[in-house]
Amino acid sequence: MTYASSAIDLGAAKADRNPGVLTAGGAALALGSIGVTVTSVLYALSPPAAALPAYPLDLALTGARSGALTLHAAGTVGIFSDIVMAVGVLLVAFDLVQRERSIAAAGWIAMFLSIIVFTFVDAIGGYVLAPLAGLNDGASVFAGFKRLFDVLFLLGTVAFGGGAVVALADEMRASAPAVSRPLILIGITVGLAAVLAAAACFVGLPFGQGVGISIGLGSVLFAAVGVQLVLKAR
Predict the structure, then answer these.
(1) pTM of the predicted protein model
(2) Neighbouring C-beta atoms of residue 232, cutoff 10 Å
(3) pLDDT tens digit string along 50-67?
(4) Which of 31, 77, 188, 198 has the most beta carbons within 10 angstroms of its beta carbon?
(5) In sequence order, what are the residues at sequence separation of 6 or more whose Cβ sits closer than 8 angstroms to the Cβ of residue 102?
(6) Residues 6+ apart with CB under 8 A from 165
């Protein structure tokens, strides 16, 4: 075999998708995203001042007391779903790195970091805020953890939205995209909305509901993306 033919074979191998990695990644992404969607619904059933960032602390304290059950359920579903989704996102990023699509891989890695951040958000929301709110002398400690919950929620939203925009915009430019164009366009729109809503909260504007809605829509979107990746890998 000549050097030229070897180089061509190597280039073709790099261009091919790894069906095993992409199938596993898409399946984990879809399953984890469904769990995050359930988590978002449970947070939506909780008092928004406790479940979302950028609300006054006195309302958050009252909301954490009255919404203890749904907050605990949301946090429990969320921490396990986050782990499954993170595995899926990381596998997709690995597949992209193998095919030397560094820009798209960077977007998926940003989403992976976002999910790690949201694991802490769900742990605090489900297992810390409500117990602290129930203590007679826990208001000051509650305030500290709620501030941490808020900033992590907003940081995770920025990373998720920004990563989704980068990854999906690069996917649109691919010669054989694994995600359908309608999902790509919806995903970019949701990602931009998430970044803008979180940025508004960072500067003190009351866009907490927008942050929560964008994360909920994003989880539904990436459940569909995961299914498409599984089908594309076959």
Answers:
(1) 0.90
(2) 17
(3) 999 999 999 999 999 999
(4) 198
(5) 96
(6) 107, 187, 188, 191, 192, 195
